[in-house]
Specification:
mainly beta, globular, 150 residues, Immunoglobulin-like, three-stranded antiparallel sheet
Length: 150
């Protein structure tokens, strides 16, 4: 698998709300800027990459295995950092009350689920990597701030 390039392919923002995206649907380009939520729940939300760095079409339902979430107290992520969570790229939609036997792309994660595994700080930074079915990883996406009420 060629490496997806995050700056143009994967948009990550901290937002309150849900994104629903089914496999087989069209992929648009990601737009906007990260925002800090105004409510207590923080959801990390992203659009899966639609192409590899060489512009070859990428099918997230077929080509991606999982995502890795990284958290630090600064925005200087390195290859030595370890992920604090792994999220399947494709999940069984019937387990969430959606269409039986269907699959959907996972595009969000509740950051509060990480709190037992991360340092206590008022501000942390979150980044994400996509991992292909062949094990190759993308670069880190642009870190986004996560303000907590510790």
């Amino acid at each position: 698998m060629l490496r997806p390039g995050f700056p143009t392919l994967l948009f990550v923002s901290i937002a309150v709300g849900a994104l629903a995206s089914g496999c087989g649907g069209g992929q648009g380009s990601a737009q906007g800027h990260p925002v800090v939520p105004s409510e207590s729940a923080s959801i990390l939300a992203w659009n899966p990459p639609a192409s590899y760095t060489d512009n070859t079409v990428l099918d997230p339902c077929r080509d991606l295995d999982h995502y890795e979430i990284y958290v630090r107290q600064d925005s200087s992520f390195t290859e030595k950092d370890l992920p604090v969570a792994l999220i399947a790229a494709i999940v069984d939609a019937s387990s969430s009350g959606e269409s039986p036997g269907g699959k959907r792309q996972e595009t969000e994660f509740l950051l509060e689920n990480l709190q037992p595994f991360i340092p206590k700080a008022n501000r942390l930074y979150v980044s994400l990597k996509a991992v292909g079915i062949d094990g190759q990883k993308s670069d880190f996406m642009t870190p986004v701030p996560w303000d907590q009420n510790n």
